[in-house]
Amino acid sequence: MDPARDLPPTHGPVEEFTAPAGPFVLVDTDYFPGHRVSAANDPLPAKVITWAPDRAQARERMRRALDAFHVSGPGVRTNIPFLRRVLDAPRFADGTHTTSLIADLTSQEPLG
To answer: CB–CB of 69/18 below 8 Å?
Structure first.
């Protein structure tokens, strides 16, 4: 997925795929090094869930999980920088966000 271009899926061979692991982190994926992401592929290559007793701790665990995620390959992009931006958005941090948050964040400057 490429948030800088309205979240279209990206495709190509996956050369590196390391998912986060550990307590309170769940990753649901079928990607692996050598997997070829086709243009018709599901744009959600992995689902990551973190749990904690409160929102702030869950956000921090998600940050660590995103830091541990490594995905690379020619033509393959992730939305990890965008997800970090969501985690840092004040409205998301305090739980006052609405469904417009994604549109608001994607209308800002490109994520590069």
So the answer is: yes
